């Protein structure tokens, strides 16, 4: 990150990780203890700088799983997820357009 607000983003990143660990979202596991077919999902941080009146207010950070690397479960039960959610526009939205 080459932003002059880098220190605020790093602090926000630490705050996000601390919150996730305190809620029990993660569990430390040795890679050697996993089964060979276990998939390790890749994550990354999304940074967003929020401004008030054009001036820097704060930086928010969210940890997200990169879903494009996941595969839907097939009939054999192999995959990462069962179902996906996608927003469907209501007919009223088309009428306003």
Give a description of the structure.
- The chain is an alpha+beta fold.
- It has a domain at 40-72.
- Helix content is 24%, strand content 22%.
- It has helices at residues 6-22, 91-96; strands at 43-52, 55-65.
- A hairpin with a 2-residue loop joins strand 1 and strand 2 (55-65).
- The protein is flat, with a radius of gyration of 19 Å.
- The N and C termini lie far apart (40 Å).
- The mean pLDDT is 78.
Index terms:
two-stranded antiparallel ribbon, 2 helices, flat, 97 residues
Present the secondary structure layout.
Blueprint: H1 6-22, E1 43-52, E2 55-65, H2 91-96
Antiparallel strand pairs: 1-2
Helix content: 10-25%
Global Rg:
19 Å
Calculate the mean pLDDT score and round it. Answer: 78
Count of DSSP E strands?
Answer: 2
Could you give a quick summary of the protein structure above?
The chain is 24% helix and 22% strand. It is flat and about 55 Å long.
